[in-house]
Amino acid sequence: MERIEKLKSFLEASPNDSFVQHALALEYIKNGNLSEARKLFEDILNREPSYIGSYYHLGKLLENMGERNLAIDWYEKGMAASKKAGDNHAYNELQAAHEDLID
């Protein structure tokens, strides 16, 4: 919980800091607060679609929440964003996760 409080205080100073939001979302997942994690990942990606790292985590989170079709959509958006950014590693990870769901 201490980490969460520290990250929240960083966000108060910089509310649109995607790195801090991403880190806080990961902490929320560890603590089982999936809805708060989801909100943070969606906020990041709606504001900053080039923040590639959040696509995979949001997709996995949605899979775990039973929202398969939405996870597929986010993986596809992430694949497009990572391709545009030239990030082949992220593209391959997103593609593998995507293929696991559509097979």
Short characterization:
The protein has 6 helices and no strands. The protein has helices at residues 2-13, 18-30, 34-47, 53-64, 68-85, 88-102. Helix 4 runs antiparallel to helix 5 (68-85).
Characterization of the model:
The chain is mainly alpha-helical. The protein has helices at residues 2-13, 18-30, 34-47, 53-64, 68-85, 88-102. The protein is built from 6 helices and no strands. The termini are far apart.
Order of helices and strands: HHHHHH
Briefly note the CATH topology name. Serine Threonine Protein Phosphatase 5, Tetratricopeptide repeat
Residues in β-strands, percent: under 5%
Radius of gyration equals: 14 Å
Q: What is the overall silhouette?
A: globular
* Measured distance between first and last alpha carbons: 38 Å
What would CATH call the architecture?
Answer: Alpha Horseshoe
Major beta sheet, specifics?
A: none
Number of E strands? 0
Structural class: mainly alpha
Give the count of structural domains: 1
Q: What's the total helix number?
A: 6
Q: Helices and strands in order, then pairings?
A:
Elements (H helix, E strand, L loop, with lengths): L1 H12 L4 H13 L3 H14 L5 H12 L3 H18 L2 H15 L1
Helix pairs in contact: 1-2, 2-3, 3-4, 4-5, 4-6, 5-6
